Every structure is written in C-alpha cells, then in structure tokens.
Amino acid sequence: MSTDPTVHGHCDPRFTRVRDAFLENFRTRDEIGAAVAITVDGESVVDLWAGQADQAHTQPWERDTIVNVYSCTKGMTALCAQRLVSEGTLDLDAPVAKYWPEFAQAGKAELPVRWLLGHRAGLPAVKNILPNEALYDWNAMTAALAAQEPWWTPGTAHGYHAVTFGWLVGEVVRRVTGKSLGTYFREHVAEPLGADFHIGLAEHHHGRVGEMGIIPMPSPDADGPQLGIIIMSDPEGVSARAFMNPPSMAFGVNNAAWRSAEIPGANGHANARAMARIYGALAVGGEQDGVQLLDAAGIARCHDQQSRGPDLVLHVSTRFGQGFMLSQDAADTKFGPNPRAFGHPGAGGHLGFADPDARIGFGYVVNRMGPHILLDPRAVALIDATYAAA
C-alpha cells in the first residue's frame, strides 16, 4: 500500500516536475509537512501543500497552515528598509546614528546604514551575557547593540548577523517611520498584497501555526567546517555569541511568546504562498495588482552585491546584497541559474527568492528541520525542477 501523502493545491501542467520533486521529498528526504509555491509573471503556477503540521503526525497540513520561517524573515525586513530608501526617507550611506543617535556609542558614529544590510557592521552578537528574556525585549536588545563595540572593524569584513540583523535594521525602520518593523511590514507589504506573512503574530492566528521540529546541529556546507563544533569549542567567540546570547530560541519556537514577539531576523510566520506572492511582485519589477513595493532602482539594490567571501560567523563563504542573500558560489547553493536572483533561506530548509530574469517568485516552507547552513537538498530539488520546467 502506498504511503505517499496526499498533495493538495494546484500545479500548472508545465510544472509537473515540481509536483514530482515535492512528492519525492516526502518519499526519500523525510519530509513531514511542507508547502511550495511559485509565481511566473505574477501569476500562480504552483501552490502545493502536503503532510502533517505536527511532529506527532496527527494534524494535517492545511491550506492556511503557517510556520515559523526563521531567517526568511530577514528578506522582509530588508524589503521594508529598501522601501524607505526608494521613498527618500532613508539614506544607505548616512550614518546609522543620524536616525538612531544612541548607536554612535563604542566608535560607531560614522557606521553607515549600508553596512547593516550587508552584514558588514561587525555587530552579529552582544558580548555581555544577556538573560533569556531579552530575546523578547526590543528595547533591551537595541540598547545592548547600541552600546556594543564591533567585533571587527566595520566595513573590512562580513559575518552573518544571524539574529541581530532584525533588531539593527528594524530599529532604523522604527526611528524613520515611528512604527515597529512588524507593523510597517504589515501595513505596507503584507496586507496590501494579501500575503499571509507576519512579523509579530496576532494571537488569533496562533491556532493555525504548524509545530516546528528541533533544528539539528548545523552541518558543513561545501567544504566548510562544522559550525556546531566551532560554537561549542569557543563559547565566548563571535559565532557562539551570535546564536546563543540570548539563545536565539531560548524557550523554543512552539510557544505564544515567540510567535507574538517581533524578532525580525528570525521569527516571521508565513506559508509558501505568501513568500511566492511577495517575491513574485519583486520579480516583475516591484509592482503587483496595483501595489508598488519597490521601484526599478530598489530592485537593483536588492541584488547589488555588498559582501562575498569568508563569513566570520558561519565559517563558510557567503554572498549578500543589500539585505538579501544572493546565490552562493557552490553549485548546490544557488537560487537557480540567473545571476540577479535574490532572497533568503531560513534555518531548517525554508526558502524564498525572486528571479527578475525569469520573473519567478518562489516560496518553500517545512516543519522537518534540516541541518544545512545555506540551502537544504529538498529546496535544491524544487529549484532544479522549477527551472527545468520554466
């Protein structure tokens, strides 16, 4: 008897390879529950979901199931900042302290906004040990980062600001707009587009959140070292502090406190359809159904490379644009074949990206957490199938 899950949703006949790859992830890659969505020229061509929304396999993944998408949230945070640049209210080359005066502490008076977006600010972590509860305290985290001396000379190197990215960029957005990052994103991106993506999840949505598994210790990507070993062997180092101070999931993610907080580097909740919808709008020039997210210059900034090479936090080679991750150099870490693609993966396997050349928007979410630092093989299989069909 077949143990294949029932795949729900729709798939354009041209993209049956994507449906096949999606099903293969359940057959051979231990998928529990997942969804994948793709737009081409702003139109939905794939919107599929299957499997179970909980780890005990008792609750089916539904059309409106949303999950914590971890660092995919960074792409939405970057989008908010880029909107402000396009509006002329935020200057990437101005000092962060122009908008956030307290940030000028510890030699950071001239550090430009651009270096926050490109992971070049030297602020991936706070050195002084913080209580677990600080993870949910916006003022505590922004005050600690304002006081923090950079771990390296800003602008001279880059390292993944794994969680701090959200507080750093989010505080700039808050100072410019007077609104929290989650509120600004909801009012200017998610609600106008009808995208089911939330940064700071309202309580009435909690009941449809899929249960996330535990993230395994990160494994090497390409020929990189074992990040987990580095973190354990140097608990006071930048990599350990970046992920463990406060612990980025101090009390886990399957709880109301995590879901309700605004942690714009890590705790967005969404489905694949929402990510494909937003990235699909960016892939066709920044406007969809009368909603303008970015202008042409803004789209160009998204894939404008800011950092490339050794990452001082992840200990692999990484590439970043202005807030978005770009395709990496290894063959199995690319957002398809086109050089202008940009987006962001999330821990465990999630992925969203835009490809302006192919006019593709892509979203993929899971609840079986993989150990890969960059792209999960499940996502790679779906990307390959997408471009084989497109």
Order of helices and strands: EHEEEHHHHHHEHHHEHEEHEEEEEEH
What is the number of helical segments per DSSP (H or I, 4+ residues)? Answer: 13
Largest sheet: 7 strands, antiparallel
Mean pLDDT, rounded to whole units?
95
Strand content range = 5-15%
Summarize the amount of helix as a percent range.
Answer: 25-40%
What is the C-alpha radius of gyration, as a whole number of Å?
Answer: 19 Å
Q: Structural class given helices, strands, pairing?
A: alpha+beta
Shape descriptor reads: globular
Distance between the termini: 34 Å
Going across the major beta sheet, what is the strand order?
A: 1-3-2-14-13-12-11
Count the E strands. Answer: 14
Spans of at least 5 consecutive residues with low confidence: none
Account of the protein in words:
With 390 residues, this protein is α+β, with helices and mostly antiparallel strands. It has helices spanning 16-28, 72-87, 96-99, 113-117, 138-147, 164-177, 181-193, 227-233, 238-244, 256-260, 272-283, 296-302, 377-389, and strands spanning 8-11, 33-40, 43-51, 67-68, 197-198, 269-270, 287-288, 291-292, 307-310, 317-320, 325-326, 342-345, 351-355, 360-366. Strands 1-3-2-14-13-12-11 form a seven-stranded antiparallel β-sheet, with helices on both faces. A three-stranded antiparallel β-sheet has the order 4-6-5. Helix 1 (16-28) runs antiparallel to helix 13 (377-389) and helix 5 crosses helix 6 (164-177). The radius of gyration is 19 Å and the shape is globular.
